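Board notes (copied after class):
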Amino acid sequence: MIKFLKTKFLTSSNQSAKSQNTSQENEKDSEKKIILFDLDGTLLDSAEGIYESFCRACEDDYKPTLQQVRGLIGLPLEEMFRFVGFDKEESKKRVIRYKNHYRRICIEKTKLMPYATEALILASQFAHLGVVTTKTALYSKQILEHFGLLKLFQVVIGSEDIDRPKPDAEPILKALNFFPITPKERIYMIGDTIYDIKAAKNAKINSVWVKNGFGKDLQKETQLSFNTIYDAVLYIQKI
């Protein structure tokens, strides 16, 4: 009987300790900030693959320059093709051609932006991380997995996951469903284009612009702008 009571007491103590540890972990988890990242031009230098695929999809009907395509990155693909003159139905066909080519070259023709790995490793120590991109989530995950970074993210929201892409707030709000409830002043969206900044504003979270991506001269659009993604993460860690 005494042995039974002792065993019961130890089991109860172990359960109590586990419960306390879980409670402490949950509390620590809820204290973390949330950082959402754009991909193209923020974490990934993907201009070469996007440009090649865009040209392949346009065929001989239109020959854009690299600079023209860089200026369109951040828009949904269909809007990119409509911007250069294709109508709605034709743009949908071009998107299919684009994706058929891009899926074959996306890993080979993509590099990481400077200090992206270091920034993500640092960010993962004090924040929950997610990706919000107009890129297809399938390709996004494949590329992040290739670079060994997918494991750092709790969620990747891509074009197939939402109805209204950035600058609408929908992608950000959908991503936030995967995290603990967090005050919006502790949530950040880091991106390189006006669409990232506007999406953050529409979702009423902090917008952060990195200057070395595709967007230019956006200092007036946000109070937080940095030369590299590592500089941005370092700032968020300290505040």
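Comment from the instructor: The chain has ten helices and eight strands. The mean pLDDT is 91.
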